[in-house]
């Protein structure tokens, strides 16, 4: 029998009960059903409680990613070796279903890499309505939809950091503590479309927030683990007119998050997160900021190949020139132990180890490159830029060990080379190495 309680009676004990169940989730696995077969409790991979008719339920989970990196050359202002030890992500996640057709998701980042002190450190806080199958309507704070690698969860993205080209369009798939509304539809796992409008927490001189539109479409004639053929396109545009000091910078960490990050120690004032073009100066005004993206992927068995091409244009509304940049990445990955990457809803997903003792071992190589059309020279505390087209090329070589479905250990070596931009010491190349220990539940 299931006993009913008032909210007042449950309030004091709810938090303690959830905490106790979450702890016990790591010690026990399986399914528990009440006498009336009304509730199912699953404790494998977090805590999940749901009614058997799936009308109500919730899951408590999270992810912890602890990183350590060392880097030199272009990655630091003086070219000397620096290191960084930090929590890349430390999420507590609560999601669920209510009244069959309503879903919610709340992800809080204790590493403070998402959100802010004023707006809350939320990576996501959203409500979705699923009653118009196959269309889902989503509202709240969440990242806009742009690109294949961004669509893949940070828990299961192959390289430890997403490609360097994404850095120059960071506004396209970041919520910047604003709010949004998005409609998306999945058709038999072979086609996916989404469109959304977002109100960022950046205002113009009248206090009117920056508005952004995003759209993404995917067609995947082959859409199952180990047998994937994927094509997609994305578009994003935001209006920066009348925004004082709008951030129109084209900048990149070139794969080394430790040059500047939160959640722990980074390279501090010596970290070089260089600006390849654009500006956030208060005396420069901008108009429309637009980005396009094309994506493709192919997977057969344990081998996968994917790539994206991206272009961004920022229109000037002042005496400075327009700025534009474009680039691409190509990535190849192979699972030495034979497992295939899962694929669903227009994106790649986790690798599940077949051997519980050995785990799954994956190796990968990714090449990133981009260029920015820049007509303004700059001398910064960490970099020196010429008034010419700036370029960057990054080689990433790494290995991942999926010890089980909860623990992943990764290591990645990165080699960067730039043109028309150096650090303060004159270095136009740099080397970096980063390791990660990840636990998800």
From TrEMBL:
Gene3D superfamilies recorded: Porin (2.40.160.10)
Keywords of this entry: Signal
SUPFAM superfamilies: Porins
Organism annotation: Pseudomonas cavernae
Pfam family, one: Porin_O_P
Segment forming the signal sequence: 1-29
Protein name: Porin
Keyword Signal (UniProt): yes
Record-linked InterPro entries: Porin_dom_sf, Porin_O/P
